[in-house]
Amino acid sequence: MPEKTIESINIKRIEILDQAGETDEALMPSLAEADIRCLYELLVLSRAFDQRALSLQREGRLGTYASILGQEASQVGSAYALEQQDWVFPSFRETGVHIARGYPAELLFAYWAGDERGMQAPEGLNIFPISIAVGTHIPHAVGAAMAIKYRGEKTAVAAYFGDGATSKGDFHEGFNMAGVYRLPVVFICQNNQWAISIPRERQSAARTLAQKAFAYGFEGIQVDGNDIFAVYKVTRDALRKARDGGGPTFIECHTYRMAHHTTADDSTRYRHDREVELWKPRDPLARLQSFMEKKGLWTEQYRAEAEARARTIIDDAVKKAEAMPRPDPGDMFTYTYAAPSSRQRRQQGAL
Amino acid sequence: MPALNMVQAINLALREEMRRDRSVVVLGEDVGKDGGVFRITDGLLPEFGEERVIDTPLSESGIVGAAIGMAVNGMRPVAEIQFMGFIYPAIDQIFSHAARIRSRSRGRFSCPLVVRTPYGIGIRSPELHSESSEALFCHMPGIKVVVPSTPYNAKGLLAAAVRDPDPVIFLESTRLYRLIREEVPEGAYTLPLGKARIVREGKEVTVISWGSMLHKTLQAVDGLDAEVIDLMTLNPFDEETITGSVKKTGRVVIVHEAPKTGGFGAELSATIAEDAMLFLKGPVLRVTGPDAVIPLPKLEERYAPSPERIRKALEEIMRY
Questions:
Q1: Considering CB atoms only, which of A138, A148, A180 is closest to B73?
Q2: What single DSSP character describes residue A325?
Q3: Would you report the helix, strand and coil content of chain A in percent, each value rounded to 5?
Q4: For A161-179, what is the mean pLDDT?
Q5: Which burial class, exposed, middle or buried, applies to A127 when counting CB atoms under 10 A from its CB (0-12, 13-18, 19+)?
Q6: How far, in Å, CA of A131 to CA of A135, rounded?
Q7: Cβ partners under 8 Å of residue A307, min gap 6
Q8: Contact flag A143-B66 (C-beta cutoff 8 Å)
Q9: Which helix (H) or strand (E) holds A267?
Q10: Mind listing the pLDDT tens digit for each residue in B133-159?
């Protein structure tokens, strides 16, 4: 009997916008000038939030914070492809997704300052609370997609996580169920090369993370995560496929965590500066700026205005967050159950 | 009224809840075509279809995790884990997520989920099929823990659990599944979660138990003026009924089959010490499983509290 190949896979990598600001016109998604400006301003706002959060943390005004520096295009580009009714299940490093979806910045500051009221998404915004537990929220996105499919809605679900999460059991259990039931869910991995101190190649012996999807019967695709057009296009296509009954997609955004894991971490203990230096020219903001300059959409004045607008929003958000009255200890009991037990009521009275 | 066993009563509760509310779905390993390893979901697939009776991959964390996602998105999933010993891979989902979603989202999202699982010894099953780990779940705020003891209360409690806005762990004694029959009305009724029932009134001693141990307790109290409380919900538990009874009798025996150390009896005992110490005539006694790994069938009857062991504790406390 001759040996036969019964399965082979191809992993695509999509790149549209290069470092010089040139685009592949065949792949370029149709985006109006207003969309491109909006994407740029969301990148600026995300970075402004991040930088303010880092400085507030150093001043002791925020607790531990996880920086998104370098990953803004993966976050803003994918979130921009979502429709209002779509669901988002974020991990803890998706501030750019929150901002792109219109999550109030003051609530994000409040959350990182240790106030749980920051995790209450406004009505009409289907964004789930941040999951600190790594990867265990992936099955939740799967279940939400099951509910959507059951009701026959034209809605999709996006689950965000990092490269570390792909090593967790719940990643595999969630992917497996998503494949078996062909659910309207898009898995978006920000492969930022580091899970705290463990590099990507110690996370998995697989050549790409994207290829993991094929074991579960659906497509995995790698995208240049610092290229906002590529991220936007791949996510938009995957969301459309999901809404049209085509099942799940796994998107590996190949990007880089420029900062420490969190403000409580010191990455100089485990990675070389020269690696960080290598990624600096790939900055997602600079790349979009080069593109816009070529198209006549970007000037120094525009940058200054965009940054000033972002600063105003962030200043205002910090003020609002810091002006919030301290949370009531009673809140601990209010939200444990729909109605507190008699024992809880006595404990509440004693606090 | 038909006389049903516990399997039939739970099946009827699921069927009626699914007929009443289209957002109620069941999911788990073998729950569809096979009707579940204990036949609890038998006949649901032909009536409700595979969109609502979902055979899942072998994936405990995935099942509970997906059920959480459904629950936060408007469904009322009832997930089955085939044996309590297999629930441990899903504990991360239950503790880290189901229990905290209401709190984490400040009430924006809730998790109206039921996880049903058979528990306990008594059907001569292999290793990890006889667990009675209810105390683990009772320690976690945000979830409710319910243990029915008869077909009638199983049906009413399960209907209440399905309608409850919070996650409920619903523990079904394998030993009781086919042991007893009683009249169970058709048509929906619920029994309130968090309320105990006084099965037998008495003045001399209070015996507290739940699930299958209730029936062993009832065998042990013959001829004594004992008040028997079936706790039914372990978290939140009915402190008022317990304290009221203890103040009347002054003597307490707690019976459970789980290991003694850190068992739920310890919580009850401590609560009685805090709230009714001065009414006690003697120590609060516990009759429990030993602090040993739950054995294979040849030793399981030695492991579980027997009516004789319960009787001995009752005789001891009556000397005070």
A1: A148
A2: P
A3: 50, 10, 40
A4: 98
A5: buried
A6: 8
A7: A44, A48
A8: yes
A9: none
A10: 999 999 999 999 999 999 999 999 999
Length in residues, chain A: 351
Strand partners, A252: A189, A222
Q: Among the residues of B201-320, which ranges form H helices?
A: 213-220, 239-249, 264-276, 297-303, 307-318
Mutate which: B53, B75, B108, B140, vs A, most A CBs within 10 A: B108
Non-local (6+) Cβ contacts of B117 within 8 A are B80, B81, B82, B83, B84, B86, B87, B169, B170, B171, B172
Q: Which pair of structure tokens corresponds to residue B175?
A: 């030993």
Query: Tokens 């030793």 label which residue?
Result: B299
Report ipTM for this prediction: 0.94
Question: Does A173 lie at the interface with B, CB-CB under 8 angstroms?
Answer: yes
Q: What would the pLDDT profile of B92-114 be if each residue is shown by its tens digit? A: 999 999 999 999 999 999 999 99
- Asked if pLDDT for residue B1 goes beyond 80, the answer is no
Six-digit token string for A204: 């998995």
Whether residue A130 contacts residue A91, with contact meaning beta carbons closer than 8 Å, is answered with: yes
| Tokens (6 digits) for A316 | 């205002």
User: What string of DSSP letters covers A217-235?
Assistant: TSEEEEEETT-HHHHHHHH
Residue B187 tokens, joined: 């048509």
C-alpha distances in Å from residue A214, one per residue of A183, A188, A209, B259:
15, 15, 10, 45
Q: Between B62, B97, B141, which is nearest A173 by CB?
A: B62
Residue position matching structure tokens 């949370």: A327
